[in-house]
Amino acid sequence: MKVKKSLFSFSLEEMRDYLTENQFSRFSADQIFNWVYKKFVFDLEGWSNVSKKIKEHFLENIDLSLPKIVWNGLSEDGTRKFLTRFSDGQTVENVAIPGKDRLTICLSSQVGCAIGCVFCHTGTMGLKRNLGSGEIIGQFLSITKWLKENVGDDVRFTNVVYMGQGEPLHNFANVKQATKLLLEDKGIGLGQRRITLSTSGLVHQIEKLGDFPPVNIAISLHASHDNIRTELMPINKIYDLKRLFSAIKKIPLKAYRRITYEYILIDGLNDRLEDIEGLDHLLNSRESKINIIPFNEYPESAFKRPSPEKIRWFQKELLDRGYITTVRVTMGQDILAACGQLKSELEKPNLWKKEQIMA
Ligand code: SAH
Ligand code: SF4
What confidence tens digit (pLDDT) does each residue in 145-190 have? Predict the structure, then answer.
């Protein structure tokens, strides 16, 4: 059986070329993009200005399916979590996070993850497979469509973070293609600064970031000493802090941009003065931002979250040393929707509150 290419994996230029190769009008690509990415019309019947011949050709040759939202849950704080299923039955989770003047979607790049960080719920699954670029964009489109139908027609995402399941740089080509579609003016049309790619520190891929659209980069650092980082993230055995930072120094940074360092704060492990001094030694305050993520406990997690006083102290010490330092407000705790807690099983259905919708 011929594997059909997903409609949502074509860049505008590729769609134009594809139509030309198949003896259709090149300009129809712009119309198709307008229906899909601006109007969110996925039913070909609705594409009123696109020729019948193209529609027939698409029905036969192109995969037009979107991933299906099979479950969603709303947290007390407005965060909404989705369980999203692809055509082979594999699922990932997504989170929509409302902010003051933004709505952020957390996208997954893989089913599971191979990196195996010990604090991460996803890491315990192992890697099932990479997602195709059409599946990554499909998450964005399906959830937008769901929100438009169920919450309000004016809902639109303003920001994207690759902080769901998976190590995005482990799926470099597909995440790059999806990112181009997020940025495409005639596609989703987000600005470069509204997209953040978070990586655990895959050095050989960080070295290739010159060949990736210039979006915000977040590095999951989590420790400033090799022994602790190795304990938390097995990847540190291969790519230790020295190798990591020599790769980071080569990331082409646009003027005034900073790299974000994510730092999960764990009680009694990496929340000491020497950890702060270690950070100050590794980082440069002009080019770095630190985002403290108080550890999100989940059932059976081995670690604890530090006290609010400890978190404030850690932040203040870094602020005093000149670092822009934020503490991530943990959203969606009641439904395990916070980043790092995603795992595509509904193991504990009683944890999920409100509005359970199964398709
Ligand atoms: N794999 C990539 C991107 C996805 S993880 C990465 O690791 O960077 C997104 C963020 O959530 C990472 O910073 C990750 O370290 C963090 N995270 C994972 N488990 C967590 C937990 N239990 N509590 C808080 N943050 C967690
Ligand atoms: Fe993978 Fe990121 Fe989880 Fe580590 S924190 S196991 S890299 S998803």
Answer: 999 999 999 999 999 999 999 999 999 999 999 999 999 999 999 9
Q: What does the alpha-carbon distance between residue 105 and residue 29 come to, in Å, rounded to a whole number?
A: 26
**Positions marked catalytic:** 93, 339
Alpha carbon distance 37, 216 (integer Å):
23
Cα 342 to ligand 2 centroid, rounded to whole Å: 10
Q: pTM to 2 decimals?
A: 0.93
CATH code of the region 5-63: 1.10.150.530
Q: Atom 3 in ligand 1: which residue has the minimum CA distance?
A: 163
Taking CA atoms only, the protein residue closest to ligand 2 atom 4 is 117
**CA angle at residue 295 from 292 to 296, to 5 degrees?**
125
Domain layout of the chain by residue ranges: 5-63, 99-345
Ligand 1: nearest atom to the Cα of 297: 22
Q: What is the pLDDT of residues 57-70, one digit of tens each?
A: 999 999 999 999 99
For domain 99-345, which CATH number applies: 3.20.20.70, 3.40.50.2000, 3.40.30.10, 3.30.300.30?
Answer: 3.20.20.70
Using a 10 angstrom Cβ sphere, with 0-12 exposed, 13-18 middle and 19 or more buried, the burial of residue 173 is exposed
Ligand 2 site-directed mutation target among 117, 175, 233, most atoms within 8 Å of CB: 117
